[in-house]
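Table 4 source record.
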Amino acid sequence: MVRSVVQGRRMLARARAFGLVVLFAMGIPLGPQHAVAAPVLNQPAPPFTGTDSKGNAVSLADFKGSIVVLEWTNHDCPFVRRHYESGNMQGLQEQAAGTGVVWLTVVSSAPGEQGFVDGKEADALTKARGAAPRAVILDPSGDIGHAYGAKATPNMFVIDASGTLVYMGAIDNQPRVTGADPAGAQNYVKDALQALAEGKPIATSVTQPYGCSIKYKS
């Protein structure tokens, strides 16, 4: 009996350890502060209020009645650079803005970690890259990122005009740093926005995000 109990405890410990290894390999930060309910597709998007690069408070509720795109970014991430250096991300931002879509870029890198920027640096990057988000939200605490379960950069979310989360995952189907042309990829965000504009169901509403793991506060 005692032997069975000991064996059971060992099996449980191994299972827990394996689970932690899997989470680490996926780039999912660990720790008690991450015990937040994951966002649910076709349910209300997690509400948030953050501070943008200009020091203004920005809430999801501010854009009620509009389609919203959330883009998690890290300017030092090679996956992010591929989309910006090719002009793919800026083109999508401009196209979205032209149809009234609100595009919010979110930086959840913690101070001292790769991708962290202050407001002045964020605005300089936006200008230098010719980017066109409605606002760049600085999230050094990681609160907004954790609320959305954001794992990588870029990680994309689309929220419809009713405030419902209708897409989450990768920007496209080319999870490579080099040897891929974003212009020739299936862009899931573009497809989702097109489907919303036409009043059609979104064919691909959940995908596996790819890129650099978000450098959350430990």
